[in-house]
Amino acid sequence: MNITICVAQTKAAPWEEGFRAQLPGAHVSTWKAGDPQADYAIVWSPPQAFLDEQPGLKAMFNIGAGVDAIMKLRLPPQAQVVRLDDAGMSVQMAEYVCHAVIRHFREFDGYEADIAAGQWSYRKPRSRADCPVGVMGLGVLGERVARALRVFEFPVHGWSRSPKQIDGITCHSGTEGFNGFLAASKVLVNLLPLTPDTQDILNRETMGRLQPGGHVINVARGAHLVEDDLIALLDSGHLSGATLDVFRTEPLPAEHPFWQHPKVTITPHTSARTLRDESIAQIAGKIVALSRGEPIAGVVHRDRGY
Ligand code: NDP
Ligand code: OXD
């Protein structure tokens, strides 16, 4: 069995070593142009040239949850695209989002500023009922985040393509459920995959439907958010803040207004990191299953794009 590694923005060598250790019978190498055909590929943002050289690929395993960079390419028709299925990401995402929501709700930024100014002061306690959180996307990450927010007793709404029932969460679905979901939310968390249907979904009109004083948390992809529309809604006072982990251009350019905006908190695409050992173990298990003809979880539906 031939396994090839083609990963952008990360070192290939530790992945190569990890797969050799997990699958001792396999030939594992890092892709170079002109290499022989592989059976399985481990990828992150692979170039088109790689796929053009791999017409006989059986499956490609993305070392992240989001497959938008792959779905833009011309893919070998029979190759399955497999996303990372949690592998330690959902707990990180739950930590990040709960931290951002609680920081907003408890006004910890305000307290930090007061303390820095040498001021011992109190803010009026807020009611959780006035801070409903809406989670866009109720998949592997979104459902975990929604459940984690319920632990802190926030009213939680969720929105997905297909209808769902999740204990304690008010679930909305489809285009017909979208406006009701937005109107019910004050804090909005985006955990949708980036597809033609979801690009630019966070815009002046949709974010304008949130309850006044809202806060937007984008942890999915930068291209979901129309950045100028967010700035306009922050500056008009309709939104009170935003926590952004992903951007249209990454790294965020030095001159971008988000760096200095007083109502925007940014982090460098780090809300849920790929954990290498967990990911290698998960993917190696799936390669063994596929080679035995067994079904696996996390196969991307090409028509849906996620
Ligand atoms: P999943 O594929 O498991 O879940 C996607 C969810 O979005 C599903 O509930 C799906 O609905 C819903 N959805 C998709 N399209 C639509 C639509 N048009 N309208 C309404 N709902 C829709 O993805 P994950 O939870 O694993 O990951 C979500 C995204 O998070 C990734 O695609 C990636 O971009 C991002 N991510 C970001 C990271 C970071 O560090 N910032 C780390 C990891 C992921 P249904 O259930 O009906 O199919
Ligand atoms: C992912 C990511 O999609 O890291 O996994 O953004």
What would you note in describing this structure?
By secondary structure, the chain is an alpha/beta fold. It contains ten helices and twelve strands. It has helices at residues 13-22, 48-52, 68-71, 89-105, 108-116, 140-151, 174-183, 204-208, 227-236, 276-291; strands at residues 2-7, 27-30, 40-44, 59-62, 80-82, 133-136, 156-160, 169-173, 187-190, 214-218, 239-244, 264-266. The strands form two sheets. A seven-stranded parallel beta sheet has the order 8-7-6-9-10-11-12, with helices on both faces. It has a five-stranded parallel beta sheet with strand order 2-1-3-4-5, covered by helices on one side. The relative contact order is 0.14. The model has no long low-confidence stretch (mean pLDDT 97). Oxalic acid binds at residues 64-66, 274.
Average pLDDT taken over every residue: 97
Give the CA-CA distance, first to last residue.
27 Å
Give the strand line-up of the largest sheet: 8-7-6-9-10-11-12
Backbone structural class: alpha/beta
CATH homologous superfamily title of the largest domain: NAD(P)-binding Rossmann-like Domain
Strand content: 15-25%
Helix content: 25-40%
